[in-house]
């Protein structure tokens, strides 16, 4: 399931990015979405700055620190690894590989995929994957979706990015985190120091079979 979703998101990232590669202006869909937003929140800078606040390091870094600490205290080393690599790796790949590769600019800066969106979407995806299965996962995913859409509106409304930059950044981040979650999950099966060997309950040798 995870690999399927990751593959779809990766395909969307490429499919959206190819038509805008090398562009310096908004495409047709970008223009239409931006025009629609102008009838709503665009023109309210205070509100838009509030919308993009979750994308800023001052919010994301403390949040990730809390997640890493909570996972470490609970001996969830797979969670620690995912929280660290699941955000750092997508950001690095986006900054040093994807942005130069697609070479789409806005006001002279590389814009596709949106770095702000990658940072936020990667962090939110990590939170969803680390949430307890069931209601907690559903609630975390729902809240994350709302936060991501609101942040995207802010990024477009303030002129930081085109709508397709936000879409590409979100899809790439989800794909990258889901791909990274597979190898990091192996750490969940690594016993911590002092844990009894597999097949025993207290560390003592298993009882001999009567036969």
Give descriptors for this structure.
about 210 residues; mainly alpha
Q: How does this model look, in words?
A:
The chain has 8 helices and 2 strands, in the order H-H-H-H-H-E-E-H-H-H. It is mainly α and 211 residues long. A two-stranded antiparallel ribbon has the order 1-2. Helix 1 packs antiparallel against helix 8 (163-184), helix 5 (77-102) packs antiparallel against helix 6 (115-130) and helix 6 (115-130) runs antiparallel to helix 7. The model is unreliable at 194-204 (pLDDT under 50).
Secondary structure: elements and pairs:
Blueprint (H helix, E strand, L loop, with lengths): L1 H19 L7 H11 L6 H8 L4 H17 L3 H26 L2 E2 L2 E2 L4 H16 L4 H23 L5 H22 L27
Antiparallel strand pairs: 1-2
Write the H/E string, N to C. HHHHHEEHHH
What multimeric state do the chains show? Answer: single chain
| Biggest sheet descriptor | 2 strands, antiparallel
What are the segments in which pLDDT stays under 50 over at least 5 consecutive residues?
194-204
Overall residue-averaged pLDDT value: 89
Tally of helical runs: 8
Radius of gyration: 21 Å
Q: Would you report the number of β strands?
A: 2
Helix and strand content put the structural class at: mainly alpha
Q: Could you tell me how far the N terminus lies from the C terminus, measured between alpha carbons in angstroms?
A: 44 Å
């Amino acid at each position: 399931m995870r690999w399927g979703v990751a593959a779809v998101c990766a395909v969307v990232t490429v499919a959206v990015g190819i038509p805008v590669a090398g562009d310096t202006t908004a495409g047709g869909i970008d223009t239409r979405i931006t025009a629609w937003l102008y009838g709503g929140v665009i023109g309210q800078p205070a509100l838009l700055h509030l919308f993009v606040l979750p994308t800023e390091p001052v919010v994301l870094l403390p949040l990730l620190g809390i997640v890493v600490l909570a996972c470490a205290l609970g001996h969830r080393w797979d969670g620690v690894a995912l929280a660290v690599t699941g955000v750092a790796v997508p950001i690095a790949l986006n900054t040093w590989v994807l942005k130069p590769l697609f070479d789409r600019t806005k006001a002279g800066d590389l814009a596709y995929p949106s770095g702000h969106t990658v940072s936020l979407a990667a962090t939110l995806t990590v939170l969803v994957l680390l949430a307890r299965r069931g209601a907690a996962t559903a609630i975390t995913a729902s809240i994350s979706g709302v936060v991501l859409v609101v942040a995207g509106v802010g990024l477009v409304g303030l002129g930081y990015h085109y709508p397709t930059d936000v879409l590409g950044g979100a899809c790439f981040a989800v794909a990258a985190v889901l791909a990274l979650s597979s190898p990091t999950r192996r750490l969940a099966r690594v016993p911590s120091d002092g844990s009894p060997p597999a097949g025993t309950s207290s560390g003592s040798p298993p009882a001999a079979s009567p036969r």
